[in-house]
Design a protein that fits this description.
about 220 residues; mainly alpha
């Protein structure tokens, strides 16, 4: 009976065939949850770098500004790559899978600032942040945003996708804001505590991105 119900063709108010189910909306929203976990953790880095690693706040702000400029260029470059994907191949979905492992590694690497001279620490911070935010995040984020359009022709379903994504992003942001400081303090409050938290989020993000990839279909 259930199988029969699943095979029933459904249409929206404009007569356009629907292709999305609750599991599809949920799986898709995990992509936004993962992206917001990354931005949430990056938002905590000023505190981590200054209070746990001992770097100057002004220098960290400069590094973040450099990364923002670099990110603006990688956004355009990534859009170009996606637009020039050969016909007949999926344009957007494969990038989620390609970036899972690099993203997970870099989430942990962000907190593994070595105990060496300050110039080397600053180079490490610059490189790991640029790789995570300007490369991996961009390589997932731009194709992921485009998936909302190519997953369905129904405007109604696209709006539902947007609603699910917004809700997942909000939950993710609250999750990071409430959890990070208390949990790291509970784990000892030192750099090792942040590394452990990074490992947890790296695994979580990897699993959620894989689920998002598995259920995403380019129509």
């Amino acid at each position: 009976m259930k199988k029969r119900e699943e095979n029933v063709i459904r249409y929206d108010g404009e007569g356009i065939q629907k292709v999305m189910r609750v599991r599809d909306y949920f799986a898709d929203s995990l992509g936004m949850f993962s992206l917001n976990v990354i931005t949430g953790l990056v938002g905590q880095l000023t505190y981590f770098y200054t209070d746990k690693v001992g770097l100057a706040a002004g220098t960290i702000a400069t590094i973040f500004m450099i990364n923002k400029v670099f990110d603006a260029f990688t956004d355009v470059y990534m859009g170009n790559i996606v637009d020039n994907t050969p016909k007949g191949k999926e344009k957007y979905r494969p990038w989620i899978l390609r970036m899972v492992i690099p993203t997970a590694i870099l989430i942990v690497a962000m907190f593994m600032v070595p105990n060496v001279s300050e110039p080397i620490q600053l180079i490490y911070v610059l490189v790991t942040n640029a790789l995570l935010t300007a490369i991996c995040y961009t390589a997932i984020g731009i194709p992921y945003v485009a998936l909302q359009i190519v997953r369905t022709n129904s405007q109604e379903e696209r709006s539902y996708i947007g609603t699910w994504r917004a809700a997942a992003g909000y939950v993710s942001g609250m999750f990071i804001a409430i959890m990070v400081i208390p949990v790291t303090n509970m784990l000892g409050g030192n750099q090792q505590a942040w590394i452990k938290l990074g490992m947890f989020f790296a695994v979580l993000v990897a699993i959620f991105l894989l689920i998002c990839y598995y259920f995403a279909k380019e129509q």
